[in-house]
TrEMBL record:
GO terms for molecular function: ATP binding; ATP hydrolysis activity. Keywords: ATP-binding, Nucleotide-binding, Transport. This is ABC transporter related protein. The keyword Transport applies. Residues 2-229 form the ABC transporter domain. Pfam families: ABC_tran. The keyword Protease does not apply.
Length: 307
């Protein structure tokens, strides 16, 4: 759906983004990751035609991106800019008109989303009367009012309580099932793991990592396993001997533990189980994959040290 090729934008010789390339498929949730100042917001503004790139191309459904394509794109900016004196209804009509919607279509869509998000009584309220969380929810509704094919969300979970974070996640999953494409820029790595199909990581204006979340975690695993067991921790450690290293432990109570161990040499998961059987009562054992937060920190640190 969206193809970005060698996109570059400079400000006074300094590259905000430098030859960035990646693509989004129809019906996927794609994570745009990176530390502050990496170039994520610049990239999002270029896609939304707010600013122009210096070089490179963006294609939307095969065609070079033009102003007319914005009618099929929804955008939730990180800076929540709503006109505080306007009512929710008036604001919806203002933004809907910018996307080419008729008054009747705006009313139908607004009714649908206000009812779905259980906030129908907010319609006549001024933005300034809403709490921060309420305003966040309203702005999310505004970004999907015109049923866009591509939805771009910059830190969409910022300011939401856990209940509303789950509400937004559920809605994004439903949109994905309808064939919508969603680009999320966020620092919420837990949400990335839960809903993103693929991610790209940008650091110091360049792309440093791209792929499916599961594949990236698989690539960066480091031979750690977790064992949940009942028994004596000293017996557990003695059984590991020189073939395995105890990394961490969690006490569950009643002589029950979860221990994280790391393989040494050519030892395998099967070898680990063989050494423990008869020494402790194993309740569960599994391979530990790095979290996206660990992947993020490791990749950014490595890239920074190499420069």
């Amino acid at each position: 759906m969206l193809e970005i090729q060698e996109l570059t934008k400079r400000y006074q010789r300094k590259a905000a983004i430098d030859q960035i390339s990646f693509s989004l498929k129809k019906g996927e949730i794609f994570g745009l990751l990176g530390p502050n100042g990496a170039g994520k917001t610049t990239l999002i503004r270029i896609i939304n035609k707010i600013i122009d790139q210096d070089s490179g191309t963006i294609r939307f459904n095969g065609d070079l991106l033009q102003q007319k394509h914005l009618a099929n794109i929804g955008y939730l900016p990180e800076e929540r800019g709503l006109y505080k004196q306007m009512t929710v209804e008036a604001h919806a009509h203002f933004l809907g008109a910018l996307r080419g919607m008729s008054k009747s279509d705006i009313n139908i869509s607004l009714d649908y989303w206000l009812k779905k998000f259980d906030c129908i009584d907010w319609r006549k309220k001024r933005i300034q009367e809403l709490s921060k969380g309420m305003a966040q929810k309203v702005q999310f509704i505004f970004s999907i009012l015109h049923e866009p094919d591509l939805l771009i969300l910059d830190e969409p979970f910022s300011g939401f309580d856990p209940v509303n974070v789950e509400l937004i996640k559920k809605e994004l999953q439903e949109m994905k099932l309808k064939g919508k494409t969603i680009l999320i820029s966020t620092h919420n790595m837990k949400s990335v793991e839960e809903i993103c199909d693929r991610v790209v990581l940008i650091h110091q204006s360049k792309k440093v990592l791209e792929g499916r979340v599961s594949e990236i975690q698989e690539m960066q695993k480091n031979g750690e396993y977790a064992v949940k067991f009942r028994g004596n921790m000293i017996a557990f450690v003695n059984a590991l001997w020189t073939g395995f290293e105890l990394i961490d432990k969690e006490i569950l109570g009643d002589d029950r533990f979860i221990a994280r161990v790391k393989m040494r040499g050519e030892n395998s998961f099967e070898d680990l189980l063989k050494t423990l059987i008869g020494q402790v009562k194993i309740e569960a054992a599994w391979e530990v994959l790095p979290s996206m937060n660990e992947v993020f920190i490791s990749t950014v640190t490595t890239e920074s040290n190499e420069k």
